[in-house]
Amino acid sequence: MLTDDPDGSPILKVGSLDSPSAALTLSRPVRPFDDELMLDFLVTARGEWGRVETAVSVWVTDGLGDFLASLSEDFRGWKGSRVWKSPDHSLRVSAEHRSRGRVHLTWTLSGTDIERPWDFSCTTVHPAGEDMRHLAADVRDFLRVATE
């Protein structure tokens, strides 16, 4: 769900249909360079084993919204995993269409802490079709609003 924080900047919250412990929040978008369509934002992921925050850099046009929209168009399903990665490799989204018309999105955050690499994943579950279409639209709006 796309909302605004008290200072008016967009916040996107992604929850899970099956597991209330799995959630993702995109917030604090910043354009580091006025003349480029690069966007930095904070991603907070919560899963069964903990919570992690990290900064992610994307090109506004690099397709996270398009990736999610393509999943909604294939609401009848697909075989295997589909994957999207941020250019800085700090965020990876893997999608699988499973039984009962549900899409499992595994959000993997990666980074380094005192020169030690780490990964943290949480999986959110969404009904295929309209719910995925709404998620894709919310992601596109988050990226668009942040660059205006």
What is the number of helices? 2
Morphology call:
globular
Query: Secondary-structure element order, as H and E?
Result: EEEEEHEEEEH
Strand order of the largest sheet: 1-2-3-4-5
Largest sheet composition: 5 strands, antiparallel
**Measured on Cα atoms, how large is the radius of gyration?**
15 Å
Low-pLDDT runs: none
Which percent bin holds the helix content? Answer: 10-25%
Tell me the strand percentage band. over 45%
Describe the structure.
19% of the residues lie in helices and 50% in strands. It contains 2 helices and 9 strands; from the N terminus they run βββββαββββα. The protein has helices spanning 64-73, 130-147, and strands spanning 2-4, 10-15, 23-30, 38-47, 50-59, 81-85, 91-98, 102-113, 116-127. The strands form 2 sheets. Strands 1-2-3-4-5 form a 5-stranded antiparallel beta sheet, covered by helices on one side. The mean pLDDT is 87.
Task: Supply the key terms.
alpha+beta; 148 residues; globular; four-stranded antiparallel sheet
